[in-house]
Amino acid sequence: MKIARFNSGRIGVITGDQITDVTKLCNVDPAEWPPVGPLRVIAEFETLKEKLEAAAKNGPSVPLSDVTLETPVPWPNKLIAYPVNYHDHAAEMTSTGLANIQGFFLKANSSIVGPSDAVVIPNIPGREIHHECEIGLIIGKECRNVSPEEALDHVFGFACLMDMTVRGKEERVMRKSYDTFTPIGPYIVTADEVADVADIEMKLWVDDELRQHANSRDLIVDMPNMVSIASSAMTLYPGDIIATGTPAGVDQIKPGETVTIEVEGIGRMSLPVVAGDSGANVVFDKPYEFKRGV
Ligand code: MN
User: Is omega for the bond preceding 122 within 30 degrees of 0, making it cis?
Assistant: First the structure.
């Protein structure tokens, strides 16, 4: 099932090029703040599922092109990210801090935007802002200390995810947490529609140029182990999101460009890149020159 958020907080089920509004069925108040309705939809999905399927089948529905899609989970409890999780990206970064050695970090939840938003490039002279093409994994059930064998039972679904980054040596959290630095969308595809989490193709383009292309089979820490490792430290909650890591090909994005991500079987979204007028600070005063390893 494809679960979307649209038109200022409404919940929808997508079938082909149509979307059915299931906001009421899910008992979600679109105006609710904070917008945690999608977390309850995920937590209660087992009891909602049949009703949602029936609604999607029997309509009414409207063309997807008539609505504005929004990021599916705007207010997760956690946005977890695994660094350096593909060997070819480790090589280009000349990094030895592989995900299985370094572990995960957190990004600010407030960096999340959706498929109809723009990526705002902060005005930081001397710094490059890079795209990272990733698969977003969304947790479905509260869990702690799950084994890799049990991990996928706790996954709700997947989405396209971009992990935008100020290149440098400072704290990852700060470099990756600017507003708009984590586009996630265009909707969630539930896990039952993904045949093999270790065989998902993903691609990222800047304008028409293909910059990144990889398959999840090449992950250093695979998806079951990412869930397991995170849950060894923290209780994972429905709607928690894991940015699973980026392959080689990270590079600069600049205002005026369009960045497009496509994850096989999941979806595709394009976001314009625009110039922000702020964002500089003492931490990023010193210029940093990105030198690609290979
Ligand atoms: Mn990343």
Answer: no
Residue 129, number of CB atoms within 10 A of its CB:
23
CATH, residue 7: 2.30.30.370
| Position 292 in a domain | no
What is the distance in A from the centroid of ligand 1 to the CA of 168? 14
Q: What is the total count of domains within the chain?
A: 2
41 Cα to the center of ligand 1, angstroms: 27
Å from CA of 16 to ligand 1 middle: 30
Contact (CB, 8 A) for 183 and 241: no
- Centre of ligand 1 to C-alpha 144, Å, is 24
What is the distance in A from the centroid of ligand 1 to the CA of 58? 40
Bridge partners of residue 139, in order along the sequence: 155
Q: Give the whole-angstrom CA distance, residue 22 versus residue 5.
A: 10
- Per-residue pLDDT tens digits of the chain, which is 294 residues long: 999 999 999 999 999 999 999 999 999 999 999 999 999 999 999 999 999 999 999 989 999 999 999 999 999 999 999 999 998 888 888 888 888 999 999 999 999 999 999 999 999 999 999 999 999 999 999 999 999 999 999 999 999 999 999 999 999 999 999 999 999 999 999 999 999 999 999 999 999 999 999 999 999 999 999 999 999 999 999 999 999 999 999 999 999 999 999 999 999 999 999 999 999 999 999 999 998 887
CA of 112 to the centre of ligand 1 (A): 14
State how far the Cα of 50 lies from the Cα of 203, in Å rounded to an integer. 33
Closest-CA residue to 135 (of 209, 185, 179, 190): 185
Q: How far is the CA of 246 from the centre of ligand 1 (A)?
A: 5
Question: Ligand 1 centroid vs 134 CA: distance in angstroms?
Answer: 7
Domain holding 255, by residue range, is: 79-276
CA of 258 to the centre of ligand 1 (A): 19
Residues 171 and 227 in one domain: yes
| 125 Cα–ligand 1 center, Å | 22
